Amino acid sequence: MTDAISTQSLTRRFGTYMAVDKLDLQIPRGQVFGLLGPNGSGKTTTIRMLCGLLAPTSGAASVAGFDVLHDTDALRLHIGYMSQRFGLYPDLTVRENLRFYASLYGVSGSTGAARCDAVLHELGLIERASQLVGQLSGGWKQRVALACATAHKPPVLFLDEPTAGVDPAARRRFWQTIYTLAECGTTVIVTTHYMDEAERCQRIAFLSRGRLIAIGTPDEVTREFGQETIEDVFISLQRRDEGVLT
Fold first, then answer.
1. CB 151 within 8 A of CB 102
2. Is the four-CA dihedral 143, 148, 149, 150 of positive or negative sign?
3. Which are the contacts of 61, defined by CB distance < 8 A and separation ≥ 6?
4. Residues whose CB is less than 8 angstroms from the CB of residue 104 and which lie 6 or more positions away in sequence, other chains included
5. Which of 6, 124, 137, 201 is the 20 to 30 Å CA partner of 60?
6. Sign, Cα dihedral of 156, 145, 71, 67
7. Helix (H, G, I), strand (E, B), or coil: what is residue 138?
8. pLDDT, tens digit only, all 246 positions of the chain
9. Phi/psi-derived region of residue 52, left when phi > 0, alpha when psi is between -120 and 50, beta in every other case
10. Are 151 and 116 in contact (CB under 8 A)?
11. Residue 139's Cα: distance from chain center in Å?
């Protein structure tokens, strides 16, 4: 199986600060992969490099078959990105937001209209299509943001803290949708501070101070750290990074 994402010694410095330090990752197609770690561990910097938004200081990476440094224009047409802020336009309707984002990825005209209708149905948004996004609850905005991020059927989807501030029921529905996308071949990379969500990932990687310190299934990682749960692993890393003895 060809990897959807591959990095080799991927590194990013900001002056003397090492944000990501020689990161090696291989993520197969169709996998739900969690990127975890305390604040400042390098998660967002890694995602920005993989999305072609930030050039690596050194090392290499490919996403969906595109070099993140030399093929950035093509890369951005083959990935979806969703952040916790959603990035929606509150004064536009659900359908208008969706049509706008689809057009940014080259999906327009009759093809774009048909694709937007399909996404609205798939995500249960058809009855909200004419409603202003600014009038929606957090859970509905989340669903619209996911629709916008997947309007062009990207093979790789990045989700950066996508469920922050969303109620538990909406979070459960969201993860059901994520697994449906993965079953259809989409590779999903998610960062989250909800460790119950981390347990839902097929594989996870823990970063600490820019370094990859563990990778595997949730069960494999908890065994490696001698902890009962992923949350226990997270807490131990957080304390270590804050200089607290455990």
1. yes
2. positive
3. 5, 6, 7, 8, 10, 49, 50, 67, 68, 69
4. none
5. 201
6. negative
7. helix
8. 479 999 999 999 999 999 999 999 999 999 999 999 888 899 999 999 999 999 999 999 999 999 999 999 999 999 999 987 778 999 999 999 999 999 998 898 999 899 999 999 999 999 999 999 999 998 899 999 999 999 999 999 999 888 877 788 888 888 999 999 999 999 999 998 888 889 999 999 999 999 999 999 999 999 998 998 999 888 887 777 666 434
9. left
10. yes
11. 17
Token pair 């561990």 is found at 41
Full-prediction pTM beyond 0.70?
Answer: yes
Can you name the residues that pair with 194 across neighbouring β-strands?
none
